Amino acid sequence: MDVVEDLSPLLPESAFLRTRQLLHAWGGISLSDSKRSMVGNRLKKRLRCLGLSDFDDYLDLVEQDEPERQNFINALTTNLTAFFREEHHFAVLADYLREQPGGKTINIWCAAASTGEEPYSIAMTAVEALGERAARRIRIVASDLDTGVLAHAETGVYGIDRIERLSRDRLRRFFFRGTGKYEGKVKVKPELRAMISFRQINLLGAQWPVPQHVDVLFCRNVMIYFNKETQAKILERFVPLLAPTSLLIAGHSESYSHVSHLFRPVGRTIYRLVNPRGRQ
Fold it and tell me: Where does the UniProt annotation place the signal sequence (predicted)?
């Protein structure tokens, strides 16, 4: 009998506490008590893959082995996304892009790219707003902590169920429909993919390989995984990257009221600097 099959998905309290400490230390992510069952189920899959029967043995391995550490982070990172999620943000983005001077390069950072739906939605919005000029003027950096979702995003391949919300015009304009073994899938067209640079970035890491100035920063539905103190530290680091006219876009359930000395709301979950110390 495979002893791993008898593992309860509910971690022992000590293993859950250790998991929380490790995930917070490496990714800054805070797990609530309610996540214990979810964590147990996800880590159980890693134990099965490795032939382990004890959560503590697995956590020992995670602390010693860098590749498995990344698998650990990937397993516990929740990735819920969709094309044009929170659609009002993309309407604001389109207006912003049209208002920018004609020769200006526009840098956009998508700081929680997940499987790519958000950065590709940004790129589609740019093309719709600027036409052929978008490819020359728009630079998008799409980052995530999870290497697994980034690998998916880079392929630009999605099941038909992922594109149900897209109009026929967008599907024709921006995607190839799969045939043969790719039946039931679509792929982002190369000209759209070329607008995006995918990178692994830990928001708590010492280095952020992004442009020195950012015109639009999408940081949606990621701050909810950090406590208020960690959120404030990250938001403070955003300040030097942003200009007075730059936009910082948050998720629908996120509020930056605790850093009102840094950012002021200018729309629904859309912010600008209060006292710009970034580029002029």
Answer: none
Is there a contact between 111 and 143 (Cβ–Cβ < 8 Å)? Answer: yes
**The one catalytic residue among 20, 36, 42, 193:** 42
Q: Is 165 a catalytic site residue?
A: no
- Per-domain boundaries in the chain: 3-76, 88-273
Other C-beta atoms closer than 10 Å to the C-beta of 35 total 17
pTM over 0.90: no
Q: How far apart are CA 221 and CA 110, in angstroms?
A: 11
- Helical (H) or strand (E) element with 74: helix 66-76
CATH (one of 3.40.605.10, 3.40.50.300, 1.10.155.10, 2.30.30.40) for 3-76: 1.10.155.10
The answer on whether 95 is annotated among ligand-binding residues is no
Q: What amino acid is encoded at 252 in this protein?
A: H
36, 46, 137, 144: which one is catalytic?
Answer: 144
Residue 85 annotated in ligand binding: yes
Report residue 265: phi and psi, to 5°: -75, 135
The answer to whether 79 is a known ligand-binding residue is yes
Tens digits of per-residue pLDDT, 108-160? 999 999 999 999 999 999 999 999 999 999 999 999 999 999 999 999 999 98
